[in-house]
Task: inverse folding
C-alpha cells in the first residue's frame, strides 16, 4: 500500500494494490434441490431441475465459501450476471 494512504487518515483512499492480484473463488447459489442418484442419472440435455427458490428471491453470493452478499440475477445482452443488493456483515453470517 502507498506509504501516505494511512498517514493521511483517509481510509477511503487506501490503495488495494497489495491485494488486487490475490485469486478468490466466487460462487453464486441460485437454489438447491435434493434428488436420488437414479434421478440425476436420468437427466439429459435441456432437463429442467426445480429449485427451492422462486423467481425474484435473493440469491446468495459466496467468496471463498463464505456468504458475503445477496443479490439478483440480471441478463445483459446474451449473458447472465449477478448484481449485489445486500452486503452481509461478518456478525450476520
Result:
Amino acid at each position: 500500500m502507498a506509504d501516505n494512504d494511512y498517514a493521511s487518515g483517509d481510509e477511503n483512499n487506501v490503495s488495494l494494490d497489495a491485494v488486487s492480484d490475490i485469486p478468490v473463488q466466487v460462487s453464486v447459489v441460485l437454489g438447491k434441490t435434493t434428488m436420488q442418484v437414479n434421478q440425476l442419472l436420468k437427466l439429459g440435455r435441456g432437463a429442467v431441475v426445480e429449485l427451492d427458490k422462486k423467481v425474484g428471491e435473493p440469491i446468495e453470493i459466496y467468496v471463498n465459501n463464505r456468504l458475503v452478499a445477496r443479490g439478483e440475477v440480471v441478463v445483459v445482452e446474451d449473458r447472465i450476471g449477478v448484481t449485489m443488493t445486500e452486503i452481509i456483515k461478518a456478525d450476520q453470517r
Remarks:
- The CA atoms of residues 1 and 18 lie 6 Å apart.
- The radius of gyration is 19 Å.
- The domain at 24-92 is CATH 2.30.330.10 (Surface presentation of antigens (SPOA)).
- Residues 37-42 form the longest helix (6 residues).
